[in-house]
Amino acid sequence: DGGITQSPKYLFRKEGQNVTLSCEQNLNHDAMYWYRQDPGQGLRLIYYSQIVNDFQKGDIAEGYSVSREKKESFPLTVTSAQKNPTAFYLCASNLGQGPYNEQFFGPGTRLTVL
Amino acid sequence: GQNIDQPTEMTATEGAIVQINCTYQTSGFNGLFWYQQHAGEAPTFLSYNVLDGLEEKGRFSSFLSRSKGYSYLLLKELQMKDSASYLCAAVDSNYQLIWGAGTKLIIKP
Q1: Residue range B52-65: average pLDDT?
Q2: B73 touches chain A (CB under 8 A)
Q3: B24-57, pLDDT tens digit by residue?
Q4: What distance separates the 2 farthest-apart alpha carbons in chain A?
Q5: Do residues A66 and A13 touch, judged by C-beta distance below 8 A?
Q6: Hey, is the C-beta of B3 within 8 angstroms of any chain A C-beta?
Q7: Exposed/middle/buried for B37, CB within 10 Å: 0-12, 13-18, 19+?
Q8: What is the CA radius of gyration of chain A?
Q9: Chain B residue numbers touching A42 (CB-CB < 8 A)
């Protein structure tokens, strides 16, 4: 079955530590996205990538980094520079820019900083 | 700036009909999505509108008025499993999604 997987589902981290969230898709989608969701707020775009080896900052990129070495994979690193990293992180993918390009979402990773 | 507004929370009765409104202001417009999100889970696609009018899909319908910057999601014959958040997202001129904060729908028996 095609889909998007994220791991782990729950992640705990101590302050000052970097942590990497995994996102893999087998939908053959060109574009991939990372969102952050806080309680009572909409999805906020962290980074996105339209093609391998290229990515762009979203609205809240500070304190985060990404890589896109393979079409299927788009890992997100939450660095110690991110001041308030506790949140629900969602990875998504679609065919790319253009109308009616529905985004498909992974199950999410809930990150808690202790 | 770009902005999406939708009510924070709504309550409805099982078996009834509910309409969730969404107004948007974006730089350019390339359509509007509605997603359903159960607590702690990923959003799932419900509908996409780019032309004015009503799109019906089973118990769910979505309406768009481009001139008014307005959309609504209509849910009929409400079931307890419809209790979820409903996210409205407009597509801007760069094909980026601008997300609303979501409307939490509570269904009572």
Answers
A1: 96
A2: no
A3: 999 999 999 999 999 989 999 999 999 999 999 9
A4: 41
A5: no
A6: no
A7: buried
A8: 13
A9: 4, 87, 89, 99-102
